[in-house]
Amino acid sequence: MGTTLTPEFWERFAVLLVAATVVTVVLATAFDTLVLRLTARHGRGHRPPAPPEPAPHRPVPAHRHRAHSSVGF
């Protein structure tokens, strides 16, 4: 038993699809704005990240000892 989709169905479908898209964009924008305001209020919004600390300088010894000897070879 097949049914046909009437023009009234497509009209309602298009209206609901556009309405859902608009609601999604508006809510996403509102939440993004809220997060940005809260981040800026806590002082984390405009501060650049701290530069990484340089690694400590370790001098290379002039003579390195071997961990094992090759006696007999």
Order of helices and strands: H
Number of helices: 1
Alpha-beta classification: mainly alpha
Amino- and carboxy-terminal Cα gap: 89 Å
Q: Specify the biggest β-sheet.
A: none
Rg over C-alpha atoms, rounded to the nearest angstrom: 33 Å
Which of globular, elongated, flat, extended, rod-shaped describes the shape? elongated
Indicate the percent of residues in helices: 40-55%
The fraction of residues assigned to DSSP E strands is under 5%
Question: Average pLDDT value?
Answer: 82
Total strands: the figure is: 0
Low-confidence stretches: none
Notes on the structure:
The protein has 73 residues and is mainly alpha-helical. The chain has one helix at 7-41.
Set out the fold topology:
Blueprint: H1 7-41
Features:
single chain; mainly alpha; elongated; 73 residues; 1 helix
Short description:
With 73 residues, the protein is an all-alpha fold. It starts with 6 loop residues before the first helix and ends in a 32-residue tail after the last helix.
